[in-house]
Design goal:
It contains 3 helices and 15 strands. By secondary structure, the chain is mainly beta. Strands 1, 2, 3, 4, 5, 6, 7, 8, 11, 12, 13, 14 and 15 form a 13-stranded antiparallel sheet that branches. A two-stranded antiparallel ribbon has the order 9-10.
Length: 255
């Protein structure tokens, strides 16, 4: 999803922009420095910080008890992205079976709407990065890049000691503003945040939407509608049913 200044900033710049991530889940993640940053720079800096330790310790509120055994969290080597649907003001809900996950930043692997004919249609709807484009169900981010479709968000985990399948999975998520917390998604589709609301862990500059329908075509898009302002809805495209999704940065998962 990042399309501006994708190249990593210098180590000095990163240190100025992003202090070390908190060692405790649930504590705030703050980003100091200029108020206007490219999202690629933010992701690059967050990824570097996330690599600083190999595990995320639980917050004091989640310390070991008989009801809530001590948890440990593994940091991902790079930021992942969840596409989520739900009431922005809610801290829990249902419907996580409709959420998606990008394991890599889909922006650099995307194709601009204006280049659809040349780079997708002319190549049997296969992007240069190798992902397939579905003409009846496709995704676009805020700069007008057609993205790969996210995979379904995994909602099960495995007990590493007993190998038992657990019907829920926990992720460490942030909107790169004030709150970093644990998101639990369950096999029955329910979800909950340990702190804050869905809005609080949404990365506002990242906008994404799925465009669907038999008459839905990239050439129907008005290129003047892009880029989309942070927090705004994605534009309507003639002939398409649109579904906006919140984008969450994912730093790691429970192990």
């Amino acid at each position: 999803m990042m399309t501006l200044s994708f190249h990593a900033r210098s180590e000095t710049s990163k240190k100025q922009l992003v202090p070390p991530l908190s060692s405790r889940v649930g504590e705030a993640l703050s980003v100091d420095g200029p108020s206007i940053l490219s999202r690629r720079a933010v992701v690059s800096a967050l990824s570097t910080a996330a690599l600083s330790t190999s595990a995320i310790a639980p917050s004091a509120a989640n310390a070991a008890t008989e009801e809530n055994p001590k948890r440990s969290f593994r940091r991902y080597p790079s930021i992942r992205f969840i596409s989520a649907l739900g009431d922005p003001k809610s801290s829990s809900g249902s419907g996580s079976e409709t959420w998606g996950l990008w394991r890599d930043d889909p922006g650099p692997r995307g194709v601009y709407l204006k280049d659809y004919d040349r780079r997708l249609k002319a190549n049997n709807n296969v992007a240069p990065a190798g992902w397939s484009f579905d003409p009846t169900d496709w995704w676009v981010e805020e700069h007008g890049l057609i993205m790969s479709t996210p995979e379904p968000l995994p909602r099960k985990s495995v007990n590493k000691e007993t190998k038992e399948i657990i019907p829920e999975k926990q992720y460490v998520v942030t909107g790169d503003r004030e709150i970093t917390t644990v998101l639990t998604v369950r096999d029955d589709g329910t979800w909950e945040l340990e702190k804050g609301s869905l809005y609080d862990v949404t990365h506002l500059p990242c906008r994404s939407a799925a465009y669907r329908g038999d008459t839905c075509a990239p050439m129907n898009a008005n290129l003047k509608d892009f880029p989309v302002k942070p927090g705004a809805e994605m534009p309507v495209i003639n002939g398409c049913a649109k579904q906006d999704y919140a984008v969450l940065f994912v730093l790691g998962e429970a192990v």
